[in-house]
Specification:
binds nicotinamide-adenine-dinucleotide; Aldehyde Dehydrogenase, Chain A, domain 1; 468 residues; 2 domains; Aldehyde Dehydrogenase, Chain A, domain 2; alpha/beta; seven-stranded mixed beta sheet
């Protein structure tokens, strides 16, 4: 079985113990990853602390290193794609796009200006507001986009002058471990340390005395634990958590035209995207046409092992997640909803679930109120747009949402009433390294990407020179 090392202080380090990594397409263990010991975690944080001293003082070197890191990821996208597909399940072409995109994210950040403002310059005083790095960052990622979400943190954190200890999910440690080893050739030792392990490694990181910042992407439940743990010594936190994104279809929308787009943004990565469309609100008059058009899309999807040519949708990443999606669908069906297509898990090895379009589910059904994070989409009827907005906003979530209609100005107006971090019009899931991304309510604290995300890896310092 393939074994990847952790990267600590620029060296590849084996674990004293290791754990199995399962291929979700087969349900079989296909690789092993190191289980980081407390002493190894101490060593990783210590090497990050040591590296911080030199790293924080040379912005040009940081920009050059991030460019080199981004170039390397882009060049190795096709080599790393099978590693990512093998542990995560996504089709090979999507895996290659994730690795390539992660490299693009690093290169974009390599060139970003670091905010710096003169707020007073007169006879009495000169006052600047600058952004200083925080020190060592603990970064923790989930299993849906292991590498992309890691690079959303690595790019800005390292550009700002911080160093990092990064931990991927135990479901998907391999690509991040491989990238840690790869980037050791272009980053100074200790700047980026990668550790892996089963829980409670994440909790040990948030409780560790060295990091000054925890950047976490994952579920709401874990995010709340991270916030509580970080509060003990007032570590700064950014929390990118779950979503239950609504898409509101306005009465002037064309179901045939928007269905492929809605399907694409709901079933991307097999529905395992924090900001995928997770419920569609549609007026009564368009309901049947839209449901049929979405079902046609779902029927055309090719579900299978992501390593196989032509597969568009792989397995769910892990058995508990497949079981959760199946349970939410079964609950909706038991309460009177209809699976227009799909409706259950796929028999056989691996963690597959049929792409499912549900009609007849509504608010109060768990699959509408909660985050399903999988290939099952409820299409919910509404009577008035005002009511649809109220229902879209009526959850604890607030990651993103979208409004779809022929009159884009009207859709824009409706979108502005959504209580969420990103409100899209006639699109969804449109992200960019220069555009902030984050959630309100339980969907998160703080933002990633753009100047706003970069600022999250800094502290404000006021420099005030008296002139009197
Ligand atoms: P999860 O919360 O179970 O795990 C996330 C990470 O936290 C893993 O690395 C895990 O090992 C670690 N962890 C577990 N317990 C911990 C603890 N007590 N302290 C610190 N770390 C701990 O989430 P998941 O199931 O891996 O990912 C799916 C969730 O992530 C979904 O809810 C999804 O919406 C969310 N997500 C959010 C975003 C975003 O940007 N908002 C992006 C992707 C995924």
């Amino acid at each position: 079985m393939t074994q990847y090392g952790m990267t600590i202080g620029g060296r590849s380090v084996k674990g004293e113990h290791s754990f199995d990594v399962v291929n979700p397409a087969t349900g079989q263990a296909h690789a092993q990853a190191p289980d980081c010991s407390p002493a190894q975690l101490d060593a990783a944080f210590e090497s990050a602390r040591t590296a911080y001293r030199g790293w924080k003082d040379d912005l040009d070197a940081r920009r050059a290193a991030l460019h080199a890191a981004g170039d390397l990821l882009m060049a190795k996208a096709n080599d790393l794609a099978p590693v990512l597909t093998g542990e995560q399940g996504k089709p090979l072409q999507d895996a290659a796009a994730e690795v390539f995109g992660a490299g693009f994210w690093l290169k974009h950040h390599a060139d970003m200006p670091i905010p710096h403002e003169v707020i007073r310059d007169d006879e009495a005083a000169y006052v600047e507001v600058v952004r200083r790095p925080m020190g060592v960052v603990a970064a923790i990622t989930p299993w849906n986009f292991p590498l992309m979400l890691a690079c959303w943190k690595v790019g800005p954190a390292l550009l700002a002058g911080n160093t990092m200890v990064l931990k991927p999910s135990p479901y998907t440690p391999l690509t991040t471990l491989a990238v840690g080893e790869l980037l050791a050739s272009v980053l100074p030792p200790g700047v980026l340390n990668v550790v892996s392990g089963r829980d409670p490694l994440g909790a040990q990181m948030t409780a560790h005395p060295v990091p000054r910042k925890v950047s976490f992407t994952g579920s709401v439940a874990t995010g709340k634990r991270v916030a509580a743990a970080a509060s003990d010594d007032l570590k700064r936190v950014t929390l990118e958590l779950g979503g239950n994104d609504p898409a509101i279809v306005l009465p002037d929308a064309d179901p045939a035209e928007i269905a492929p787009k809605l399907f694409d943004r709901a079933f991307a990565n097999n529905g395992q995207v924090c900001s995928a469309i997770k419920r569609v609100y549609v007026p009564d008059a368009l309901h049947d046409d839209l449901v049929e058009a979405l079902a046609d899309q779902a029927r055309a999807a090719k579900v299978g092992d992501g390593m196989e040519e032509g597969v568009t949708h792989g397995p769910l990443n892990n058995a508990p997640q497949r079981d959760r999606v199946a349970a939410l669908v079964a609950d909706a069906l038991a309460r009177g909803a209809t699976a227009v297509t799909g409706g259950g898990p796929v028999e056989g090895p691996g963690f597959f679930h049929e792409p499912t379009i549900l009609a007849g589910a509504t608010d109060g059904f768990a699959i509408v109120d909660e985050e399903q994070f999988g290939p099952a989409l409820p299409v919910v009827r509404y009577s008035t747009v005002e009511e649809a907005v109220e229902r879209a906003n009526g959850t604890h979530f607030g990651l993103s949402g979208s409004v779809w209609g022929a009159d884009a100005d009207r859709a824009w107006e409706v979108a502005s009433a959504l209580e969420c971090g990103t409100a899209w019009v006639n699109t969804h899931l449109a992200v960019h390294p220069g555009q902030p991304f984050g959630g309100v309510k339980w969907s998160g604290v703080g933002t990633e990407n753009g100047t706003w995300g970069l600022e999250g890896f800094t502290e404000v310092q006021v420099r005030h020179r008296n002139r009197l």
